[in-house]
Design goal:
The chain is α+β, with helices and mostly antiparallel strands. 40% of the residues lie in helices and 15% in strands.
Length: 504
């Protein structure tokens, strides 16, 4: 019985090893030479939509980088720049609850909007405090010798939206006072190693290293950001791949337009010479005119002098024996449809990335209300889901390396909120009508420094405070308020303009 169990165990190990080798061979499949890759304008859709069974493909990533231009760049730029500008917060567990996040929120020193929902539900705000100085924050602010925090996040988001993956390699730092360096790696520089388990380590191959060499990095020191493929838990979906048909069509239209501008003459009018011009040129006056280059230039200069410019728009053109006719050269219906199709591909690309055109700088036919709705859609449906993915990946992979002696740290990137000034003013006017905000809250909203003792609500002197806790409403008089009735000679105050506030 022991021998049979031993043989079964050996067979399982052999089978696992064979499966690992197959996965590793698929993952290590590289092009023979960069010159063997197809041209960016000759890649068929079937190649761009190459959903390989292997969990990783450098060939696909290389092609995706080649198509990162034009409108994909315009859409991705909006997302990456918005996320890279968001602040990063770090909190740790404390014993003194007076310094907790909950107390800071109650005192108005920290906005609860800066806490994402996954942090608020998972974290006890009364037991964590905000940290302003920590080695982890220092490393993120200066991740390596040539980058800053905004460049690091921008690089990460761009790779995530182009190839579906982004990588950070955590390496020992040679800088003074910095324990670690964060080195972002392009998707084409790194491959998984499936030995002994899938994704047990990573092999980094910069362009300066030959194909047979590389730097093997344990998975604990590699942060792998990716958009998961629902058909493969180890696979990733590239948004650029999902929009490949629209991207290729848009590139073809742009290339055709560029070729047209470069190769085709595009005069707006054609001047047809008359009989007098034929006689001047030495002809008989009845045939086709053969003008010299100097004569052609003289007619063109005369036409510009007489009719070019906005100030001469709409002037009648006088025809004579020199200029017999004028023919207007305009776009034909085929060219007009060609331009309309360019707008369709633009909408497909921007909708695929979840970026409204107004967010990319389009201001034509845009109102304040439509811009606010577009910004809210961008934040809620595009920006914040990516922020949560990046924040939770950093929390899982990077934060434990900086936890000293079991220190419990929590890191998150602040989620983006739409800016609607009209709606904010409407909210403040509504709140002020019920005496809800304090003096310092209003001053913070206006960008002013808080005042000592300004955490009080201002109630107009004519207002009446009513206590509804009892069986019947009872008027509450502030301390020091005179209780005597007004004299008979004095006119009674107008009761119609008094405000009543329920004290619940």
């Amino acid at each position: 019985m022991a021998i049979l169990e031993f043989l079964d165990a050996v067979q399982r190990q052999v089978r696992q090893r064979a499966d690992s080798l197959v996965l590793e061979q698929e993952a290590r499949r590289l092009p023979e030479s960069p010159l063997s890759l197809p041209s960016r304008y000759s890649i068929p859709c079937s190649d761009v939509l190459n959903r390989r069974r292997s969990p990783f493909s450098i060939v696909s990533a290389q092609r995706q980088y080649e198509h990162y231009s034009g409108r994909p760049y315009a859409a991705i730029r909006v997302i990456s720049h918005r996320i890279s500008a968001q602040p990063i917060y770090l909190a740790r567990r404390v014993v003194d609850e007076q310094r907790s996040l909950q107390r800071m929120i109650e005192r108005g020193l920290f906005s609860k909007r800066s806490l994402p929902q996954w942090i608020s539900r998972w974290l006890d705000l009364t037991k964590y405090e905000l940290i302003e100085q920590h080695p982890l924050l220092d490393v993120l602010a200066s991740p390596n010798e040539w980058m800053i925090q905004q460049q690091l996040i921008d690089f990460t988001i761009t790779n995530l939206l182009v190839t579906g993956r982004a990588f950070w390699v955590i390496a020992q730092s040679t800088r003074t006072g910095v324990p670690w360096d964060i080195v972002p790696i392009p998707t084409t520089w790194i491959q998984p190693v499936h030995d002994p388990q899938p994704f047990s380590s990573w092999l980094v191959r910069p362009p300066t290293v030959s194909d047979k060499e590389g730097i093997k990095v344990d998975k604990r020191y590699v942060l792998h950001f990716y958009i998961p493929d629902p058909s493969n838990p180890y696979g990733a979906i590239s948004p650029l791949n999902m929009l490949s048909r629209a991207v290729l069509n848009d590139e073809a239209i742009a290339e055709a337009q560029h070729s047209t501008f470069r190769n085709e003459g595009m005069p707006s009018v054609a001047l047809i010479a008359g009989e007098e011009a034929d006689l001047v040129a030495g002809g008989s006056g009845g045939g086709a005119v053969a003008l010299t280059p100097e004569q052609r230039q003289e007619i063109v200069d005369w036409f510009r002098r007489e009719y070019a410019g906005v100030a001469k728009y709409g002037l009648p053109l006088v025809l004579d024996a020199i200029i017999k006719d004028v023919k207007i050269l305009s776009r034909n219906p085929k060219e007009m449809a060609f331009l309309e199709s360019s707008g369709v591909t633009k909408e497909q690309i921007f909708e695929g990335y979840g970026v409204p055109a107004v967010a990319a700088g389009q201001v034509e036919n845009v109102t304040r209300e439509s811009a606010s709705v577009a910004d809210r859609h961008l934040c809620q449906n595009t920006i914040n889901p990516i922020i949560r993915t990046v924040s939770q990946t950093i929390q899982r992979g990077l934060v434990p390396l900086f936890s000293v002696r079991g220190e419990r740290l929590v890191l998150w990137i602040e989620e983006a909120w739409p800016v609607d000034q009209a709606l904010e003013l409407e909210k403040w006017n509504f709140a002020t009508g019920y005496f809800a905000p304090t003096i310092n809250e209003v001053r913070r909203f206006l960008g002013l420094e808080p005042l000592p003792g300004g955490d009080v609500v201002v109630v107009p002197q004519r207002a009446r405070l009513v206590d509804l806790n009892g069986e019947e409403p009872r008027e509450v008089l502030p301390a020091g308020t005179p209780t005597q009735q007004p004299a008979e000679s004095e006119p009674a105050p107008d009761e119609s303009d008094k405000l009543v506030i329920a004290k619940l």
